[in-house]
Amino acid sequence: MVSEGDIAIGKAKVENGIVMVPLRQVAEKLGFKVTWDGAAESVHLTDGTRQITVKLGVDSYAYSAAKEGLAGMSAPASLGAAAYEAEGTTWAPAELFNLLVEGSPVRLNDDVLYI
Question: Rounded to whole angstroms, how far apart are CA atoms 37 and 60?
């Protein structure tokens, strides 16, 4: 993965045609506060404007927003893969961040994921 044009920030992987990224690493790079809830097996992301709770093992993503002209909750969306944890890292579809951040900040060009 590359951020700000040429700074490598980590590795992504493609699983069954879906680009998966380390959730915390990408979320924090995009300005989100990340909180793990072990009891619910979920990760909560918020940037003060938008928030989402990502439940492990569930391919359904809906965010809520609270800013002028934008309020309420999005319809749940399937992104083709559920988030999961492996060796202490939570992996989620890269497309999740295109739901949360205006301007599609995550894009794949050849084999490099740009954030």
Answer: 17
Measured between alpha carbons, how far is 54 from 26 in angstroms, rounded to an integer? 14
Hey, what amino acid is at 66?
A: A
Side-chain-side CA neighbours of 71 within 13 Å: the count stands at: 3
Over residues 43-101, the pLDDT tens digits come to: 999 988 888 999 999 999 988 876 555 556 667 889 999 999 999 999 999 889 888 87
- CA distance linking residue 58 with residue 40, whole number of Å: 12
φ and ψ of 108, to 5 deg: -105, 125
Quick count: other Cβ atoms within 10 Å of Cβ 85? 14
Residue 25 Cα to chain centre, angstroms: 9
DSSP category for residue 97? H
99 close to 19: Cβ distance less than 8 angstroms: no
Are 106 and 43 in contact by the 8 Å Cβ rule? The answer is no
- At 7-42, the pLDDT tens digits run 455 678 889 989 898 999 889 888 899 999 999 999
